[in-house]
Amino acid sequence: MQKELVLLHGWGMNAQVWQMVKPEIEQVFSGDVRSINLPGFGGAPSPKLDYTLETAAKLVAEQLKPESIIIGWSLGGLFALYLARNFPDKVSKVILIAATPYFNEVTQWPGIQSNVLDAFQVQLEKNATKTIERFLAIQAMGSEHAKEDIKSLRALLAQAPAPDPIALKAGLDILKTQDLRTDMAMVEQPIYGLFGRLDALVPKAVIDKIRGLNSNFHCEILPKASHAPFISHRSEFITFLKSVL
Protein backbone atom coordinates (compact mmCIF):
# COMPACT_ATOMS: atom_id res chain seq x y z
CA MET A 1 0.00 0.00 0.00
CA GLN A 2 1.29 3.44 -0.95
CA LYS A 3 2.18 5.65 2.00
CA GLU A 4 0.44 8.94 2.64
CA LEU A 5 2.13 12.22 3.55
CA VAL A 6 0.23 14.16 6.21
CA LEU A 7 0.86 17.84 6.97
CA LEU A 8 0.18 19.22 10.46
CA HIS A 9 0.07 23.00 10.97
CA GLY A 10 1.13 25.16 13.90
CA TRP A 11 -0.64 27.10 16.65
CA GLY A 12 -3.37 29.53 15.57
CA MET A 13 -3.17 28.31 11.98
CA ASN A 14 -5.16 25.74 10.01
CA ALA A 15 -4.64 23.24 7.19
CA GLN A 16 -4.86 26.00 4.57
CA VAL A 17 -1.40 27.26 5.57
CA TRP A 18 0.15 24.46 3.48
CA GLN A 19 -1.60 25.50 0.26
CA MET A 20 1.27 27.85 -0.67
CA VAL A 21 3.67 24.93 -0.99
CA LYS A 22 1.47 21.83 -1.33
CA PRO A 23 1.66 21.64 -5.17
CA GLU A 24 5.46 21.52 -4.96
CA ILE A 25 5.33 18.85 -2.24
CA GLU A 26 3.07 16.76 -4.49
CA GLN A 27 5.70 16.94 -7.23
CA VAL A 28 8.37 15.32 -5.03
CA PHE A 29 6.16 12.74 -3.25
CA SER A 30 4.60 9.95 -5.27
CA GLY A 31 1.78 9.17 -2.82
CA ASP A 32 -1.15 11.20 -1.55
CA VAL A 33 -0.43 14.48 0.27
CA ARG A 34 -3.03 15.57 2.80
CA SER A 35 -3.11 18.55 5.14
CA ILE A 36 -5.44 18.14 8.11
CA ASN A 37 -6.66 20.49 10.81
CA LEU A 38 -5.54 19.94 14.36
CA PRO A 39 -8.55 19.57 16.68
CA GLY A 40 -10.25 22.91 17.29
CA PHE A 41 -8.58 24.59 14.32
CA GLY A 42 -10.00 25.28 10.86
CA GLY A 43 -13.42 23.97 11.84
CA ALA A 44 -12.22 20.60 13.18
CA PRO A 45 -13.98 19.58 16.42
CA SER A 46 -12.17 19.89 19.73
CA PRO A 47 -11.96 16.87 22.05
CA LYS A 48 -15.14 16.26 24.04
CA LEU A 49 -13.02 15.75 27.14
CA ASP A 50 -10.44 18.27 28.33
CA TYR A 51 -8.23 19.50 25.50
CA THR A 52 -4.77 17.98 26.05
CA LEU A 53 -2.12 16.71 23.69
CA GLU A 54 -3.29 13.18 24.52
CA THR A 55 -6.98 13.76 23.76
CA ALA A 56 -6.30 15.87 20.67
CA ALA A 57 -3.66 13.54 19.22
CA LYS A 58 -6.08 10.63 19.53
CA LEU A 59 -8.49 12.48 17.22
CA VAL A 60 -5.67 13.05 14.74
CA ALA A 61 -4.60 9.38 14.92
CA GLU A 62 -8.12 8.32 13.93
CA GLN A 63 -7.63 10.20 10.63
CA LEU A 64 -4.29 8.58 9.76
CA LYS A 65 -3.70 5.64 7.48
CA PRO A 66 -1.13 3.03 8.61
CA GLU A 67 2.52 3.99 8.13
CA SER A 68 1.84 7.63 7.30
CA ILE A 69 4.73 10.05 6.97
CA ILE A 70 4.02 13.03 9.21
CA ILE A 71 5.33 16.54 8.62
CA GLY A 72 4.72 18.57 11.77
CA TRP A 73 5.35 22.29 11.87
CA SER A 74 5.80 24.02 15.25
CA LEU A 75 2.92 22.80 17.50
CA GLY A 76 2.22 20.20 14.81
CA GLY A 77 5.70 18.80 15.51
CA LEU A 78 4.69 17.97 19.07
CA PHE A 79 1.67 16.13 17.69
CA ALA A 80 3.90 14.27 15.21
CA LEU A 81 6.29 13.09 17.93
CA TYR A 82 3.45 12.07 20.24
CA LEU A 83 1.77 10.13 17.42
CA ALA A 84 5.02 8.35 16.50
CA ARG A 85 5.52 7.26 20.09
CA ASN A 86 1.95 6.33 20.99
CA PHE A 87 0.52 5.20 17.63
CA PRO A 88 3.62 3.65 16.01
CA ASP A 89 1.61 1.62 13.50
CA LYS A 90 0.23 4.87 12.08
CA VAL A 91 3.59 6.64 11.64
CA SER A 92 6.54 5.43 9.55
CA LYS A 93 8.57 8.66 9.58
CA VAL A 94 8.50 12.07 11.30
CA ILE A 95 9.65 15.32 9.70
CA LEU A 96 9.81 18.23 12.13
CA ILE A 97 9.67 21.76 10.73
CA ALA A 98 10.81 24.40 13.25
CA ALA A 99 9.69 22.11 16.07
CA THR A 100 11.26 20.85 19.26
CA PRO A 101 10.17 18.17 21.76
CA TYR A 102 10.02 20.88 24.42
CA PHE A 103 9.32 24.49 23.48
CA ASN A 104 9.70 25.99 26.95
CA GLU A 105 13.07 27.29 28.13
CA VAL A 106 14.39 25.53 31.24
CA THR A 107 17.82 24.94 32.72
CA GLN A 108 20.19 23.54 30.09
CA TRP A 109 17.41 23.60 27.48
CA PRO A 110 17.03 26.68 25.25
CA GLY A 111 13.48 27.55 24.20
CA ILE A 112 10.77 30.16 24.47
CA GLN A 113 11.05 32.12 27.70
CA SER A 114 8.07 31.47 29.98
CA ASN A 115 7.23 35.15 30.21
CA VAL A 116 6.83 35.29 26.41
CA LEU A 117 4.29 32.47 26.44
CA ASP A 118 2.60 34.02 29.49
CA ALA A 119 2.29 37.30 27.58
CA PHE A 120 0.71 35.48 24.64
CA GLN A 121 -1.79 33.86 27.01
CA VAL A 122 -2.71 37.24 28.52
CA GLN A 123 -3.07 38.81 25.06
CA LEU A 124 -5.17 35.86 23.91
CA GLU A 125 -7.70 36.56 26.68
CA LYS A 126 -7.99 40.18 25.52
CA ASN A 127 -7.93 39.87 21.74
CA ALA A 128 -7.49 36.52 19.99
CA THR A 129 -7.41 38.04 16.50
CA LYS A 130 -4.61 40.45 17.34
CA THR A 131 -2.63 37.68 19.06
CA ILE A 132 -2.82 35.48 15.95
CA GLU A 133 -1.76 38.46 13.82
CA ARG A 134 1.35 38.83 15.98
CA PHE A 135 2.04 35.14 15.55
CA LEU A 136 1.65 35.51 11.78
CA ALA A 137 4.33 38.18 11.81
CA ILE A 138 6.69 35.75 13.58
CA GLN A 139 6.02 33.10 10.92
CA ALA A 140 7.14 35.42 8.13
CA MET A 141 10.34 36.62 9.77
CA GLY A 142 13.37 35.84 7.61
CA SER A 143 11.45 36.12 4.38
CA GLU A 144 12.50 38.70 1.82
CA HIS A 145 8.79 39.07 1.07
CA ALA A 146 7.49 39.12 4.66
CA LYS A 147 4.59 41.51 4.03
CA GLU A 148 3.43 39.59 0.98
CA ASP A 149 3.76 36.28 2.83
CA ILE A 150 1.68 37.55 5.75
CA LYS A 151 -0.98 38.84 3.35
CA SER A 152 -1.10 35.47 1.55
CA LEU A 153 -1.21 33.55 4.83
CA ARG A 154 -4.00 35.72 6.18
CA ALA A 155 -6.05 35.14 3.03
CA LEU A 156 -5.50 31.37 3.18
CA LEU A 157 -6.37 31.11 6.86
CA ALA A 158 -9.56 33.08 6.28
CA GLN A 159 -10.79 30.30 3.97
CA ALA A 160 -11.47 28.13 7.04
CA PRO A 161 -13.40 28.85 10.25
CA ALA A 162 -11.66 30.73 13.05
CA PRO A 163 -10.00 28.60 15.76
CA ASP A 164 -11.96 27.42 18.77
CA PRO A 165 -10.93 29.63 21.74
CA ILE A 166 -10.55 26.47 23.84
CA ALA A 167 -8.09 25.07 21.29
CA LEU A 168 -6.12 28.33 21.18
CA LYS A 169 -5.71 28.40 24.96
CA ALA A 170 -4.96 24.68 25.16
CA GLY A 171 -2.44 24.95 22.32
CA LEU A 172 -0.46 27.59 24.20
CA ASP A 173 -0.61 25.42 27.34
CA ILE A 174 0.78 22.49 25.34
CA LEU A 175 3.60 24.64 23.94
CA LYS A 176 4.46 25.78 27.46
CA THR A 177 4.17 22.55 29.43
CA GLN A 178 4.47 19.51 27.14
CA ASP A 179 7.88 17.89 27.49
CA LEU A 180 8.38 15.11 24.94
CA ARG A 181 12.15 14.79 25.28
CA THR A 182 11.91 11.31 26.80
CA ASP A 183 9.31 10.32 24.20
CA MET A 184 11.53 11.51 21.38
CA ALA A 185 14.43 9.49 22.75
CA MET A 186 12.26 6.37 22.54
CA VAL A 187 10.81 6.92 19.06
CA GLU A 188 12.12 4.16 16.78
CA GLN A 189 11.02 5.64 13.45
CA PRO A 190 13.39 7.93 11.53
CA ILE A 191 13.07 11.59 12.55
CA TYR A 192 14.21 14.49 10.39
CA GLY A 193 14.22 18.20 11.14
CA LEU A 194 14.43 21.47 9.27
CA PHE A 195 15.23 24.60 11.25
CA GLY A 196 15.83 28.29 10.66
CA ARG A 197 18.89 29.89 12.25
CA LEU A 198 16.90 33.10 12.83
CA ASP A 199 13.98 31.35 14.55
CA ALA A 200 12.89 33.24 17.66
CA LEU A 201 10.73 30.36 18.95
CA VAL A 202 13.09 27.41 18.39
CA PRO A 203 16.56 28.86 19.06
CA LYS A 204 19.54 27.48 17.18
CA ALA A 205 21.19 26.56 20.50
CA VAL A 206 18.60 23.85 21.17
CA ILE A 207 19.29 21.91 17.97
CA ASP A 208 22.38 20.12 19.28
CA LYS A 209 20.39 19.20 22.40
CA ILE A 210 17.70 17.67 20.19
CA ARG A 211 20.34 15.77 18.20
CA GLY A 212 21.57 14.22 21.44
CA LEU A 213 18.17 12.69 22.23
CA ASN A 214 17.89 10.21 19.38
CA SER A 215 20.45 8.70 17.02
CA ASN A 216 17.72 8.38 14.37
CA PHE A 217 17.40 12.16 14.20
CA HIS A 218 19.00 14.08 11.32
CA CYS A 219 18.46 17.73 10.55
CA GLU A 220 19.36 20.73 8.44
CA ILE A 221 19.54 24.42 9.40
CA LEU A 222 18.72 27.16 6.90
CA PRO A 223 20.95 30.16 7.69
CA LYS A 224 18.48 32.88 6.68
CA ALA A 225 15.19 31.27 7.65
CA SER A 226 13.04 31.79 10.72
CA HIS A 227 10.03 29.87 12.08
CA ALA A 228 8.28 29.04 8.79
CA PRO A 229 10.92 27.92 6.27
CA PHE A 230 8.31 26.27 4.05
CA ILE A 231 6.89 29.76 3.49
CA SER A 232 9.98 31.96 3.51
CA HIS A 233 12.38 29.54 1.78
CA ARG A 234 10.19 27.29 -0.33
CA SER A 235 12.82 26.00 -2.74
CA GLU A 236 15.20 25.06 0.09
CA PHE A 237 12.29 23.39 1.89
CA ILE A 238 11.44 21.29 -1.18
CA THR A 239 15.12 20.37 -1.68
CA PHE A 240 15.23 19.20 1.94
CA LEU A 241 12.07 17.12 1.49
CA LYS A 242 13.55 15.45 -1.60
CA SER A 243 16.50 14.32 0.52
CA VAL A 244 14.43 12.78 3.34
CA LEU A 245 11.29 11.37 1.70
Protein architecture, described:
The protein is of the alpha/beta class and 245 residues long. It is 43% helix and 13% strand. The chain contains eleven helices and six strands. The protein has helices at 22-28, 53-61, 75-86, 114-126, 128-140, 146-157, 165-177, 181-186, 207-211, 229-232, 234-244; strands at residues 5-8, 33-36, 68-73, 91-97, 191-196, 217-222. Strands 2-1-3-4-5-6 form a six-stranded parallel sheet, sandwiched between helices. Strand 1 (5-8), helix 1 and strand 2 (33-36) form a beta-alpha-beta unit. The protein is globular, with a radius of gyration of 16 Å. The relative contact order is 0.18.
Label this structure with key terms.
6 strands, 11 helices, alpha/beta, 245 residues, globular, six-stranded parallel β-sheet
Write a compact overview of the structure shown.
Helix content is 43%, strand content 13%.
In total, the number of strands is 6
Mean pLDDT: 93
Given the structure, what is the number of helices?
11
Order of helices and strands: EHEHEHEHHHHHEHEHH
Strand order of the largest sheet: 2-1-3-4-5-6
What oligomeric state do these chains adopt? single chain
How are the SSEs ordered, and which strands pair?
Layout: E1 5-8, H1 22-28, E2 33-36, H2 53-61, E3 68-73, H3 75-86, E4 91-97, H4 114-126, H5 128-140, H6 146-157, H7 165-177, H8 181-186, E5 191-196, H9 207-211, E6 217-222, H10 229-232, H11 234-244
Parallel strand pairs: 1-2, 1-3, 3-4, 4-5, 5-6
Helix pairs in contact: 2-3, 4-5, 4-7, 5-6
